[in-house]
Design brief:
Lyase, Ornithine Decarboxylase, Chain A, domain 1; 2 domains; globular; alpha/beta; 10 helices
Length: 380
C-alpha cells in the first residue's frame, strides 16, 4: 500500500520521485511547480502590496502540501467550502480556516465545533437565522466559540442576504448567542464576476459590490457592529478587491493551477497572465489514420466548462467517454504513436482535481513529489 494513500486503498501512486514524465502511470494529475510558484508569487505580491490579506481557497486543489506552500508565501489562513473539507485540513495541522458556505444540519455544525474546541480558529458564513441557531447550539455543547460572517449577495444570485436590514437581524441574533459565537464581519463573493471576460466588466462588478457592502456596513455600524473582516473575491477579480478600499482579504483559489476557462479572460492592464500549472498526463493507447485514443476520459477530466485542450500543437480533443479521449490531427500535426505521453489542460481545474487521488508535482520534466489529494470527495 502506498504511504499516505488518501483513500487507504491498495493502490500505488502513479509515480515516484525522480521519474521522468514518460515513466508516470496514466492518467495522472500533473502540477508544474515552477508555473505554480510563479502564479503564487504574483498573486500574493499584488494583494499584499495593497495591504490586504490573502486567504486562498483550497477547494481548488484539496491538497495540504500545496496549501502549506500558500501559507509559506504569506497567506493568513485558508478557505474551505465544506465542513468535511475543513476537517481534512484541520487534521493536517491548519489552524485558521474559514468555511465559505452556509452549513445546515447539526452534524455539520458539531464537526465545526469540535475543530474549534481543539484550538482551530474556524469561521462559517450565514444568511438565515436557522444557521445561527444551530451554530450557537453546537458551540455551547462543544464548549467553544465559532466565528460567524454574514454573507451578502453582491450580485451572484446564489447565497447571501439581500439587504442591510436582513444583515442587521442576523447580526443581532449572533450577538444574542453570547460567547458561543463571534460576529467576525462580512463575506461577499460573486462567482460569476470571476469569469467575466473583459477587465472593465470585472472592475464594474467589484465596484458595484463595494457600494452595496458600504450600505450594509453603515447600518451595522450604527447598531454597534464592527466589520473587522470583509472577505471575498478570487482569481478573476483579485486586483479589483485589492484596490477597492473596502475588502480586507481576498480568496483566490484557481490561481495556483489555472484552467482553460480562466485563460479565456482578457487580462487586466499591468497584470501578467497566470500560467497553466495543472495538466492531466495521458498515454496514447490506439492510433488510426484519422485519430488517436488516449487513456483518460470523463473519469479524468471535468467537462462542465468544455473539453480539455491538448498541449501538443496540431491536435484537438474530439470527444470523451468514460475511459477514453478521441483526439484528431490538424493539417500540421506531428503524428502520434502508441505509447506516447501527452498533456491536456482541463476546462475547469477544481472538479478535475476532485477526480484524482494524487497530484504529481514536477519540475523540468522530473517528478519531485507525489501529494495526496487528501480532501477529494469531502463533499458534506
Amino acid at each position: 500500500m502506498a504511504e499516505g494513500d488518501p483513500m487507504n486503498r491498495p493502490v500505488d501512486a502513479p509515480a515516484v520521485a525522480g521519474h521522468s514524465l514518460d515513466e508516470i502511470d496514466t492518467p495522472a494529475l500533473l502540477l508544474d511547480l515552477d508555473a505554480m510558484q510563479s502564479n503564487l508569487d504574483q498573486v500574493h505580491r499584488r494583494i499584499r502590496a495593497a495591504g490586504l490579506a490573502v486567504r486562498p481557497h483550497v477547494k481548488a486543489h484539496k491538497c495540504p502540501p500545496l496549501a502549506r506552500l500558500q501559507l509559506a508565501a504569506g497567506a493568513v489562513g485558508i478557505c474551505c467550502q465544506k465542513a468535511s473539507e475543513a476537517q481534512v485540513f484541520a487534521q493536517a495541522g491548519f489552524t485558521d480556516i474559514l468555511v465559505t458556505n452556509q452549513l445546515v444540519g447539526m452534524r455539520k455544525l458539531e464537526r465545526v465545533a469540535a475543530m474549534a474546541a481543539s484550538g482551530v480558529r474556524v469561521g462559517i458564513c450565514v444568511d438565515h437565522p436557522l444557521q445561527v441557531v444551530q451554530a450557537a447550539t453546537a458551540a455551547r455543547t462543544g464548549g467553544c466559540s465559532i466565528d460567524v460572517l454574514i454573507e451578502v449577495d453582491i450580485g451572484h444570485g446564489r447565497c447571501g442576504v439581500p439587504d442591510a436590514g436582513s444583515a442587521l437581524a442576523l447580526a443581532r441574533l449572533i450577538r444574542e448567542a453570547g460567547s458561543a459565537l463571534r460576529f467576525a464581519g462580512l463575506h461577499a463573493f460573486r462567482g460569476s464576476a470571476q469569469h467575466m471576460r473583459l477587465p472593465q466588466e470585472r472592475r464594474d462588478a467589484v465596484q458595484a459590490a463595494v457600494v452595496r457592502l458600504r450600505e450594509v456596513i453603515a447600518v451595522l455600524s450604527a447598531d454597534g457592529f464592527s466589520c473587522g473582516t470583509v472577505t471575498g473575491g478570487g482569481t478573476g477579480t483579485y486586483p479589483h478587491e485589492s484596490d477597492s478600499g473596502l475588502y480586507t482579504e481576498v480568496q483566490p483559489g484557481s490561481y495556483v493551477l489555472m484552467d482553460l476557462d480562466y485563460a479565456g479572460n482578457q487580462g487586466d492592464a499591468g497584470e501578467p497572465p497566470l500560467r497553466h500549472a495543472l495538466t492531466v498526463l495521458c498515454t496514447v493507447i490506439s492510433v488510426t489514420p484519422g485519430h488517436a485514443v488516449l487513456d483518460g476520459g470523463l473519469k479524468a477530466f471535468a467537462v462542465d466548462q468544455g473539453l480539455p485542450r491538448m498541449t501538443r500543437p496540431g491536435w484537438s480533443v474530439k470527444s470523451l467517454s468514460d475511459e477514453h479521449a478521441v483526439v484528431v490531427p490538424g493539417p500540421d500535426a506531428v503524428p502520434l504513436a502508441v505509447g506516447d505521453k501527452v498533456q491536456l489542460i482541463p476546462g475547469h481545474c477544481d472538479p478535475t482535481v476532485n477526480l484524482h487521488d494524487w497530484m504529481v508535482a514536477c519540475r523540468a520534466g522530473r517528478v519531485e513529489q507525489i501529494w495526496p489529494v487528501a480532501a477529494r470527495g469531502a463533499l458534506f
